[in-house]
Amino acid sequence: MFEFYHAHPSVNRALQTRRFQTLPATGALGADVSGVDLKQLDEDGFAELRQALLHHKVLFIRDQQLEVEDLERVTLAFGEFGREPYVKCMPDHPNVVHVVKEADEKTPVVFGGAWHTDWSFQEKPPAFTLLYGKDIPPFGGDTFFANLALAHDWLSPPLQAFLQGLDAIHSPERAYGVGAAHNKLLENMDIRFGEATDGEVRRHPLITRHPETGQRVLFVNPAYTSGIEGLRPSEATALLTHLFSVAAQPTFTCRMRWSPGTLAIWDNRSTWHLPISDYHGMRREMYRTTVVGEAPSR
Predict the structure, then answer these.
(1) Rounded to whole angstroms, how far apart are CA atoms 146 and 30?
(2) Which UniProt keywords apply (predicted)?
């Protein structure tokens, strides 16, 4: 049976802001930000930027000239640094991940190349992720984002009620565990993988309530959600497959095109993201930080 997915444009309407301008990317989420210099933004400006981020869920702040120290300062304006469990940070910047793919790498594999929410297996997953584009190819390497609050709201009320009482199991095993040999193909990143990950398994509510907006969010993702507490594996697989297909519907997504000097900031508590591997043979260099969040709750 044909399903008609839709999102009303009022969900992602432009906000009235004083210190910058926002242009919505789609009816579902995302906005381009212009007219701001993050090096000069004051405390009130960052407070306004946070409100825009909570509303649009992901911001694309263009035409910035940031050094690593600037990215650290911007990150701290949103909260304390998050923990990076499997990716080695820069020696002089212990909270910054250098995300780089050189033009001469042998395979097209990219870091984080699946729909996911960052580190959802942590006790306190990141609230926000910041990713700055330093050296960007002329085309390719777009990033998709999905609105998991919209995905929740599309589900039928009986299914929402059933999911509300469930806990999902989150584990880094497939991405970084014993069988995660794909990490060997990331030639210019230092990634720890191949060891037991039992200590990183967490159970979080399958439906969470966003601590700042109050929205209910579908808090599962294909990369790290490995099961559902109390359900048989076959039952959990069938249910998660359905939920993943809903969340990935184009209606609930936006696609960001990178350009040099763009900083993307997303609300990790209510979104997925997916980097696209279509720039093999071209160099790309980025810097990434996270802001620690809260333990997910109903």
Answers:
(1) 9
(2) Dioxygenase, Iron, Metal-binding, Oxidoreductase
**Domain presence at residue 163:** yes
Q: Do 168 and 228 touch, CB atoms closer than 8 A?
A: yes
Tokens for 238, please give them: 């069938």
pLDDT tens-digit readout, 39-57: 999 999 999 999 999 999 9
Among residues 33, 30, 29, the alpha carbon closest in space to that of 8 is found at 29
- CA–CA dist 35, 26 (Å, integer): 20
Answer yes or no: is 298 within a domain: no
CA-to-CA dists, residue 67 to 33, 71, 133, 145, angstroms? 19, 6, 11, 25
- Contact (CB, 8 A) for 170 and 203: yes
| CA atoms of 56 and 46, how far apart (whole Å) | 15
Asked if the structure places residue 5 within a domain, the reply is no
Q: How many domains does the chain have?
A: 1
